[in-house]
Amino acid sequence: MRLNQYALFTSLLVCGSLAWLPGEHRQILSRDGVDLFNRSSLHEAGLLKKRYLPHDYGNDKNAIRGVNLGSLFIVENWLSDDVFKGFGCNSKSEFDCVSSINDQAKANSNFQGHWGSWITKDDFTQMVSYGLNTVRIPVGYWFLESIVDKSEHFPQGGEQYLDEVVGWAKDAGLYVIIVLHGAPGAQATDAFTGQLNSNPGFYGDYNYNRAYQWLEWMTNKVHTNPAYSTVGMLELVNEPERLFDASKYPSVQANTDSMRNTYYPTAWSKIRDAESSLKVSSDSQLSIQMMDQKWGSGDPKQYLTDLYLAAYDDHQYVKYAGVAEDKDAYIKFSCGDNRSGNWPVFVGEWSLSVATDVQWTDAWNPNRDENKDFYRKWWAAQVMSYEKTAQGWVFWTWKTSGSLNDPRWDYKMAVSAGLIPTDIDSAYTMGACS
Ligand SMILES: *[C@@H]1O[C@H](CO)[C@@H](O)[C@H](O)[C@H]1NC(C)=O
Ligand SMILES: *[C@@H]1O[C@H](CO)[C@@H](O)[C@H](O)[C@H]1NC(C)=O
């Protein structure tokens, strides 16, 4: 089948042109052999005509190494509690914050201040200097303001900030994944959707239709706005409900079934139809990503008839994996953590956070010098497993602020604290899993 042919082709291409050295991860080859992480060769190849193709990452020499931009376009209070506080709202979600400000213009200017300053152009050059090649950007449906109902309270004016940030990522030479992280009606009960809805309302035609409009809008933007020329992947929805949440079983079963048999195939066609209307060539089409089966919402591809440039998103927070609260056990677990299954799959969210009940004890405190070696090795173990058994990883998250102050959730801080080295390839020489 098509996917396997590409896999074979890519592995022949890469094996034929490069010798394997643990460490040669910075190069990402396109299907026709252009090094997509090298800005000069990109330029020579005509960057604007070429879409990054994650299906070319199907081996551990071309892994995605990325960070999420959590709390930028969807503020999550636990990641940056200073932000809502600075707006004068004592809220857990954007919806509640905007409602409590009760002045749309004021809410807009507060959020615009955040979008325009919390992450800057320098962050992207810093990412590249740390050997990262990818950013995953969570976005809410309210960035397309025409689909927001009058009863829904969200900040406005975000689109131009999104365009600017995506452009900065492109200028730095980063591959970009855009994810519908806050779906209309909310796909989950958590504030990462932008709202706190105890009965997620996403799973029906009304909200699916709004999501299709959002995906068409984003697809058009990706193919017509030059700032988006390194956006290669669009994720249909982040972390929908999952079946092993037994207490909610009947409604969750119906919701995830409908997502897989209606939303995924229709969303897929809407994106491809939008690309056909724009006459986008097949090698410039977007990869379409869905949560991997391991997430727990069922098999994402069960009702899809076309899998060309399909990709899967695997979130792995070992913190919640029930591993014994012992450092060797953590490292052993991650060294043996095989994330393979669907292909290609990316570990699109993970962190260095450990079990909540022990995380700030002396034995696990990441700021104590005697614990840093553990965190470095555990980081290395995760990096190696996610590059060997998946096609790479995207850390959650690049930056936090406020009282969280925990490098285990903050890549930038983890580098400063000496938990993550600036040479990612050194993961392979630390002896973490030997
Ligand atoms: C990047 O591409 C340019 C132009 O193709 C080439 O001359 C240069 O050697 C490449 N750099 C690396 C590090 O591969
Ligand atoms: C991971 O599991 C897959 C599927 O069972 C297997 O093919 C692969 O060899 C495993 N990888 C490692 C590194 O054990």
Describe what you observe in this structure:
This protein has one domain: TIM Barrel, CATH 3.20.20.80. The chain is built from twelve helices and eight strands. It is globular and about 55 Å long. It starts with a helix and ends in an 18-residue tail after the last helix. The protein is an alpha/beta fold. The chain has helices spanning 2-17, 39-45, 81-86, 94-101, 104-117, 121-129, 159-172, 205-224, 249-277, 327-335, 369-388, 411-416; strands at 64-68, 134-140, 175-182, 231-235, 287-291, 310-315, 345-349, 392-395. Helix content is 36%, strand content 10%. The protein binds 2-acetamido-2-deoxy-beta-D-glucopyranose (2 copies). One 2-acetamido-2-deoxy-beta-D-glucopyranose is lined by residues 35, 38, 40-41, 44.
Kindly summarize this structure in a few lines:
The protein has a single domain (61-429), classed as Alpha-Beta Barrel (TIM Barrel), CATH 3.20.20.80. The chain is 36% helix and 10% strand.
How many beta-strand elements? 8
- The CATH class, by name, is Alpha Beta
C-alpha end-to-end distance? 37 Å
Bound chemical compounds:
2-acetamido-2-deoxy-beta-D-glucopyranose
Q: Output the structural class.
A: alpha/beta
The proportion of residues forming helix, as a percent range, comes to: 25-40%
Low-confidence stretches: 1-26, 46-51, 53-60
Report the biggest beta sheet as strand number plus sense, adding barrel if it closes. 8 strands, parallel
Return the average pLDDT rounded to an integer.
88
Number of helices: 12
CATH architecture classification: Alpha-Beta Barrel
What is the CA-based Rg, rounded?
21 Å
CATH superfamily: Glycosidases
CATH topology type: TIM Barrel
**Helix and strand succession?**
HHEHHHHEHEHEHEEHEHEH
**Roughly what fraction of the amino acids lie in strands?**
5-15%
Give the domain tally. 1
Q: Kindly report the spatial arrangement of strands forming the biggest sheet.
A: 7-6-5-4-3-2-1-8
- Spatial shape: globular
GO molecular function: glucan endo-1,6-beta-glucosidase activity; glucan exo-1,3-beta-glucosidase activity
InterPro entries: GH (IPR017853), Glyco_hydro_5 (IPR001547), Glycosyl_hydrolase_5 (IPR050386)
Catalytic activity: Random hydrolysis of (1->6)-linkages in (1->6)-beta-D-glucans
Family: Belongs to the glycosyl hydrolase 5 (cellulase A) family.
